[in-house]
Amino acid sequence: MYNFTEFLKNLSHSSKIPFNVVTEDGNQLYISDLDVKNSHTFSFNIMLGRVTSIISLEKQYENCTALLKYTIENKYTQIFLSKEQAVIDILENKEISIDNINLNLPFLKNGCYVISISVNGSKYEALSIIKQIYDNEAVVSLIYNDSIIVIGEFSEVEQHIESIKESISSDLYCECYVSYGDITYDIKGIKKAYNDAIECMILGKKFDIKDHIFNYNKMLFEKIVYNVDPKIKQELLYMLKDKFDAFDSQMIVTIEQFVDCGLNISDAARKLYVHRNTLIYRLDKIKKETNFDIRNFKDASVFLIAFLIWKGNKVE
Description:
Elements: H1 2-15, E1 19-23, E2 28-31, E3 41-48, E4 51-58, H2 65-91, H3 98-104, E5 113-119, H4 123-133, E6 140-144, E7 147-152, H5 157-172, E8 176-180, H6 187-206, E9 213-215, H7 220-226, H8 230-246, H9 249-260, H10 265-272, H11 276-290, H12 297-315
Parallel strand pairs: 8-9
Antiparallel strand pairs: 1-2, 1-4, 3-4, 5-7, 5-8, 6-7
Helix pairs in contact: 1-2, 4-5, 8-12, 9-10, 10-11
Protein backbone atom coordinates (compact mmCIF):
# COMPACT_ATOMS: atom_id res chain seq x y z
CA MET A 1 0.00 0.00 0.00
CA TYR A 2 2.78 2.41 -0.91
CA ASN A 3 0.58 5.32 -2.10
CA PHE A 4 -1.79 4.94 0.83
CA THR A 5 1.10 4.87 3.31
CA GLU A 6 2.51 8.05 1.76
CA PHE A 7 -0.90 9.66 2.10
CA LEU A 8 -1.07 8.76 5.82
CA LYS A 9 2.41 10.20 6.38
CA ASN A 10 1.54 13.44 4.57
CA LEU A 11 -1.74 13.72 6.49
CA SER A 12 0.02 13.28 9.83
CA HIS A 13 2.69 15.84 8.99
CA SER A 14 0.39 18.45 7.45
CA SER A 15 -2.08 18.24 10.35
CA LYS A 16 0.72 17.90 12.91
CA ILE A 17 -1.27 15.05 14.48
CA PRO A 18 0.86 11.97 15.22
CA PHE A 19 -1.13 8.76 14.78
CA ASN A 20 -0.59 5.07 14.08
CA VAL A 21 -2.74 2.84 11.86
CA VAL A 22 -2.69 -0.93 12.48
CA THR A 23 -5.03 -3.62 11.12
CA GLU A 24 -6.91 -5.81 13.59
CA ASP A 25 -4.47 -8.68 12.96
CA GLY A 26 -1.47 -6.47 13.79
CA ASN A 27 -0.26 -5.39 10.35
CA GLN A 28 1.24 -1.90 10.66
CA LEU A 29 -0.08 0.24 7.81
CA TYR A 30 1.50 3.42 9.15
CA ILE A 31 3.54 4.24 12.25
CA SER A 32 4.11 7.96 12.72
CA ASP A 33 7.64 9.26 12.89
CA LEU A 34 6.21 11.97 15.12
CA ASP A 35 6.03 11.28 18.84
CA VAL A 36 2.95 9.35 20.02
CA LYS A 37 3.03 9.21 23.82
CA ASN A 38 1.81 5.75 24.76
CA SER A 39 0.67 6.79 28.23
CA HIS A 40 -1.89 9.25 26.83
CA THR A 41 -3.26 7.49 23.75
CA PHE A 42 -6.78 7.14 22.47
CA SER A 43 -7.85 4.49 19.91
CA PHE A 44 -10.80 4.08 17.56
CA ASN A 45 -11.73 1.79 14.66
CA ILE A 46 -12.00 2.61 10.97
CA MET A 47 -12.96 0.42 8.00
CA LEU A 48 -10.52 0.11 5.11
CA GLY A 49 -12.59 -1.85 2.65
CA ARG A 50 -13.61 -4.96 4.55
CA VAL A 51 -10.69 -4.72 6.95
CA THR A 52 -11.10 -3.27 10.44
CA SER A 53 -8.14 -1.11 11.42
CA ILE A 54 -7.25 0.77 14.59
CA ILE A 55 -6.01 4.35 14.79
CA SER A 56 -4.07 5.36 17.88
CA LEU A 57 -3.32 9.00 18.71
CA GLU A 58 -2.77 11.22 21.70
CA LYS A 59 -5.86 11.95 23.78
CA GLN A 60 -5.49 15.69 23.23
CA TYR A 61 -6.50 15.12 19.57
CA GLU A 62 -9.63 13.14 20.43
CA ASN A 63 -11.88 15.84 18.95
CA CYS A 64 -10.24 15.20 15.53
CA THR A 65 -11.30 11.57 15.32
CA ALA A 66 -14.39 12.09 13.14
CA LEU A 67 -12.46 14.14 10.59
CA LEU A 68 -9.54 11.69 10.54
CA LYS A 69 -11.91 8.75 10.11
CA TYR A 70 -13.71 10.39 7.19
CA THR A 71 -10.51 11.58 5.48
CA ILE A 72 -8.66 8.25 5.73
CA GLU A 73 -11.61 6.03 4.78
CA ASN A 74 -12.51 8.28 1.86
CA LYS A 75 -8.93 8.29 0.54
CA TYR A 76 -8.71 4.51 0.81
CA THR A 77 -11.89 4.25 -1.24
CA GLN A 78 -10.49 6.60 -3.88
CA ILE A 79 -7.23 4.65 -4.17
CA PHE A 80 -8.52 1.11 -4.02
CA LEU A 81 -12.19 0.42 -3.65
CA SER A 82 -13.69 1.52 -6.97
CA LYS A 83 -11.71 -1.19 -8.77
CA GLU A 84 -12.10 -3.66 -5.92
CA GLN A 85 -15.85 -3.07 -5.79
CA ALA A 86 -16.16 -3.67 -9.52
CA VAL A 87 -14.50 -7.07 -9.08
CA ILE A 88 -16.64 -7.91 -6.03
CA ASP A 89 -19.81 -6.96 -7.95
CA ILE A 90 -18.81 -9.32 -10.77
CA LEU A 91 -18.00 -12.20 -8.40
CA GLU A 92 -21.30 -11.71 -6.57
CA ASN A 93 -23.36 -11.51 -9.78
CA LYS A 94 -24.42 -7.91 -9.20
CA GLU A 95 -25.36 -5.41 -11.89
CA ILE A 96 -22.36 -3.58 -13.33
CA SER A 97 -22.31 -1.11 -16.21
CA ILE A 98 -20.10 -1.28 -19.28
CA ASP A 99 -18.70 2.15 -18.39
CA ASN A 100 -17.76 0.85 -14.93
CA ILE A 101 -15.98 -2.14 -16.48
CA ASN A 102 -14.13 0.00 -19.02
CA LEU A 103 -13.05 2.46 -16.32
CA ASN A 104 -11.94 0.01 -13.63
CA LEU A 105 -11.00 -3.11 -15.63
CA PRO A 106 -9.59 -1.69 -18.89
CA PHE A 107 -7.41 -4.77 -19.43
CA LEU A 108 -10.41 -7.12 -19.73
CA LYS A 109 -10.89 -6.55 -23.47
CA ASN A 110 -7.31 -7.71 -24.11
CA GLY A 111 -7.68 -10.80 -21.93
CA CYS A 112 -6.82 -11.16 -18.26
CA TYR A 113 -6.07 -13.81 -15.65
CA VAL A 114 -7.63 -14.29 -12.24
CA ILE A 115 -5.02 -15.42 -9.71
CA SER A 116 -5.88 -16.69 -6.23
CA ILE A 117 -3.29 -16.51 -3.44
CA SER A 118 -3.37 -18.14 0.00
CA VAL A 119 -0.73 -17.54 2.67
CA ASN A 120 0.08 -19.04 6.06
CA GLY A 121 0.60 -15.55 7.44
CA SER A 122 -0.92 -12.09 7.26
CA LYS A 123 -3.13 -11.66 4.19
CA TYR A 124 -2.84 -7.89 4.57
CA GLU A 125 0.96 -7.88 4.52
CA ALA A 126 0.89 -10.18 1.48
CA LEU A 127 -1.61 -7.88 -0.23
CA SER A 128 0.64 -4.90 0.53
CA ILE A 129 3.55 -6.66 -1.21
CA ILE A 130 1.42 -7.35 -4.29
CA LYS A 131 0.24 -3.74 -4.44
CA GLN A 132 3.85 -2.58 -4.33
CA ILE A 133 4.81 -4.96 -7.16
CA TYR A 134 2.01 -3.61 -9.39
CA ASP A 135 1.93 -0.07 -8.01
CA ASN A 136 1.94 1.65 -11.42
CA GLU A 137 0.18 -1.05 -13.45
CA ALA A 138 -3.46 -1.73 -14.33
CA VAL A 139 -3.75 -4.66 -11.92
CA VAL A 140 -6.50 -5.08 -9.32
CA SER A 141 -5.72 -6.90 -6.07
CA LEU A 142 -7.98 -7.41 -3.07
CA ILE A 143 -8.90 -9.72 -0.24
CA TYR A 144 -12.08 -11.64 -0.95
CA ASN A 145 -13.51 -14.58 1.01
CA ASP A 146 -10.27 -15.09 2.94
CA SER A 147 -8.10 -15.24 -0.20
CA ILE A 148 -6.12 -12.65 -2.12
CA ILE A 149 -7.36 -12.14 -5.67
CA VAL A 150 -5.17 -10.57 -8.36
CA ILE A 151 -6.66 -9.69 -11.76
CA GLY A 152 -4.69 -8.26 -14.65
CA GLU A 153 -3.29 -8.64 -18.14
CA PHE A 154 -0.19 -10.82 -17.85
CA SER A 155 1.61 -11.70 -21.07
CA GLU A 156 3.70 -14.35 -19.26
CA VAL A 157 1.39 -15.40 -16.44
CA GLU A 158 3.70 -18.18 -15.15
CA GLN A 159 6.53 -15.69 -14.63
CA HIS A 160 4.23 -13.29 -12.77
CA ILE A 161 2.98 -16.08 -10.53
CA GLU A 162 6.52 -17.23 -9.72
CA SER A 163 7.48 -13.63 -8.91
CA ILE A 164 4.45 -13.10 -6.64
CA LYS A 165 5.05 -16.38 -4.80
CA GLU A 166 8.76 -15.72 -4.37
CA SER A 167 8.24 -12.12 -3.15
CA ILE A 168 5.67 -13.13 -0.53
CA SER A 169 7.57 -16.22 0.64
CA SER A 170 10.90 -14.40 0.98
CA ASP A 171 9.53 -11.18 2.52
CA LEU A 172 7.08 -12.75 4.97
CA TYR A 173 8.85 -16.10 5.57
CA CYS A 174 5.59 -17.99 5.11
CA GLU A 175 4.06 -20.64 2.88
CA CYS A 176 2.43 -19.15 -0.21
CA TYR A 177 0.04 -21.00 -2.51
CA VAL A 178 -1.02 -19.66 -5.92
CA SER A 179 -3.72 -20.96 -8.28
CA TYR A 180 -5.12 -19.81 -11.62
CA GLY A 181 -7.16 -20.90 -14.63
CA ASP A 182 -7.72 -19.80 -18.22
CA ILE A 183 -7.37 -16.32 -19.70
CA THR A 184 -10.75 -14.55 -19.89
CA TYR A 185 -12.21 -11.69 -21.94
CA ASP A 186 -15.56 -10.93 -20.28
CA ILE A 187 -17.22 -10.64 -16.88
CA LYS A 188 -18.74 -14.13 -17.04
CA GLY A 189 -15.26 -15.44 -17.66
CA ILE A 190 -13.95 -13.63 -14.56
CA LYS A 191 -16.47 -15.45 -12.36
CA LYS A 192 -15.61 -18.82 -13.93
CA ALA A 193 -11.85 -18.17 -13.72
CA TYR A 194 -12.24 -17.25 -10.04
CA ASN A 195 -14.22 -20.43 -9.29
CA ASP A 196 -11.67 -22.54 -11.17
CA ALA A 197 -8.79 -20.95 -9.24
CA ILE A 198 -10.51 -21.59 -5.91
CA GLU A 199 -11.30 -25.20 -6.85
CA CYS A 200 -7.74 -26.01 -7.83
CA MET A 201 -6.44 -24.23 -4.72
CA ILE A 202 -8.51 -26.66 -2.63
CA LEU A 203 -7.27 -29.65 -4.63
CA GLY A 204 -3.65 -28.49 -4.64
CA LYS A 205 -3.61 -28.12 -0.87
CA LYS A 206 -5.53 -31.33 -0.27
CA PHE A 207 -3.14 -33.41 -2.35
CA ASP A 208 -0.07 -31.46 -1.17
CA ILE A 209 1.21 -30.61 -4.65
CA LYS A 210 4.80 -29.75 -3.90
CA ASP A 211 5.55 -26.53 -5.81
CA HIS A 212 2.42 -24.78 -4.40
CA ILE A 213 1.47 -23.42 -7.83
CA PHE A 214 -1.76 -24.89 -9.14
CA ASN A 215 -2.93 -24.57 -12.76
CA TYR A 216 -6.58 -25.57 -13.18
CA ASN A 217 -5.93 -27.01 -16.64
CA LYS A 218 -3.22 -29.33 -15.33
CA MET A 219 -5.22 -30.79 -12.45
CA LEU A 220 -7.67 -33.06 -14.23
CA PHE A 221 -6.16 -36.15 -12.60
CA GLU A 222 -6.54 -34.63 -9.12
CA LYS A 223 -10.16 -33.73 -9.91
CA ILE A 224 -10.82 -37.33 -10.94
CA VAL A 225 -9.23 -38.67 -7.75
CA TYR A 226 -11.19 -36.21 -5.62
CA ASN A 227 -14.44 -37.52 -7.12
CA VAL A 228 -13.64 -41.23 -6.82
CA ASP A 229 -16.39 -43.19 -5.08
CA PRO A 230 -15.81 -43.13 -1.27
CA LYS A 231 -16.07 -46.93 -1.09
CA ILE A 232 -13.26 -47.35 -3.63
CA LYS A 233 -11.18 -44.78 -1.75
CA GLN A 234 -11.54 -46.80 1.43
CA GLU A 235 -10.58 -50.01 -0.37
CA LEU A 236 -7.44 -48.42 -1.80
CA LEU A 237 -6.49 -46.94 1.56
CA TYR A 238 -7.05 -50.28 3.28
CA MET A 239 -4.78 -51.91 0.70
CA LEU A 240 -1.89 -49.41 0.72
CA LYS A 241 -2.10 -47.02 3.68
CA ASP A 242 0.30 -49.00 5.90
CA LYS A 243 2.77 -49.28 3.04
CA PHE A 244 2.72 -45.54 2.38
CA ASP A 245 3.01 -44.80 6.10
CA ALA A 246 6.16 -46.92 6.25
CA PHE A 247 7.89 -45.11 3.37
CA ASP A 248 10.50 -42.55 4.41
CA SER A 249 10.70 -39.04 2.90
CA GLN A 250 13.27 -40.18 0.33
CA MET A 251 10.90 -42.80 -1.03
CA ILE A 252 7.97 -40.35 -1.11
CA VAL A 253 10.03 -37.84 -3.11
CA THR A 254 11.11 -40.65 -5.44
CA ILE A 255 7.48 -41.56 -6.16
CA GLU A 256 6.49 -37.93 -6.76
CA GLN A 257 9.44 -37.20 -9.05
CA PHE A 258 9.06 -40.44 -11.02
CA VAL A 259 5.39 -39.64 -11.69
CA ASP A 260 6.15 -35.98 -12.54
CA CYS A 261 8.67 -37.20 -15.12
CA GLY A 262 6.04 -39.33 -16.87
CA LEU A 263 7.44 -42.65 -15.57
CA ASN A 264 10.72 -41.94 -17.38
CA ILE A 265 13.58 -43.51 -15.41
CA SER A 266 16.39 -41.44 -16.94
CA ASP A 267 14.61 -38.10 -16.44
CA ALA A 268 13.57 -38.95 -12.88
CA ALA A 269 17.08 -40.12 -11.94
CA ARG A 270 18.48 -36.84 -13.25
CA LYS A 271 15.92 -34.79 -11.30
CA LEU A 272 16.60 -36.81 -8.15
CA TYR A 273 20.41 -36.52 -8.61
CA VAL A 274 20.82 -40.29 -8.30
CA HIS A 275 22.27 -42.97 -10.56
CA ARG A 276 19.81 -44.74 -12.82
CA ASN A 277 20.51 -48.04 -11.02
CA THR A 278 19.72 -46.42 -7.67
CA LEU A 279 16.30 -45.37 -8.95
CA ILE A 280 15.66 -48.85 -10.38
CA TYR A 281 16.52 -50.32 -6.98
CA ARG A 282 13.97 -48.02 -5.31
CA LEU A 283 11.29 -48.89 -7.87
CA ASP A 284 11.96 -52.59 -7.31
CA LYS A 285 11.58 -52.00 -3.58
CA ILE A 286 8.21 -50.29 -4.13
CA LYS A 287 7.07 -53.27 -6.24
CA LYS A 288 8.23 -55.76 -3.62
CA GLU A 289 6.46 -53.96 -0.75
CA THR A 290 3.21 -52.95 -2.50
CA ASN A 291 2.85 -55.44 -5.37
CA PHE A 292 2.58 -52.47 -7.76
CA ASP A 293 5.20 -51.96 -10.46
CA ILE A 294 4.87 -48.24 -11.13
CA ARG A 295 6.96 -48.59 -14.31
CA ASN A 296 3.83 -50.17 -15.72
CA PHE A 297 1.19 -47.61 -16.73
CA LYS A 298 -1.81 -49.56 -15.41
CA ASP A 299 -0.14 -50.30 -12.07
CA ALA A 300 1.10 -46.71 -11.85
CA SER A 301 -2.41 -45.30 -12.44
CA VAL A 302 -4.00 -47.27 -9.59
CA PHE A 303 -0.98 -46.70 -7.36
CA LEU A 304 -1.05 -42.93 -7.92
CA ILE A 305 -4.78 -42.70 -7.20
CA ALA A 306 -4.19 -44.48 -3.89
CA PHE A 307 -1.14 -42.31 -3.21
CA LEU A 308 -3.09 -39.07 -3.71
CA ILE A 309 -5.97 -40.32 -1.56
CA TRP A 310 -3.45 -41.13 1.17
CA LYS A 311 -1.86 -37.67 0.89
CA GLY A 312 -5.30 -36.05 0.99
CA ASN A 313 -6.19 -37.92 4.16
CA LYS A 314 -2.91 -36.86 5.78
CA VAL A 315 -3.62 -33.17 5.08
CA GLU A 316 -7.11 -33.47 6.58
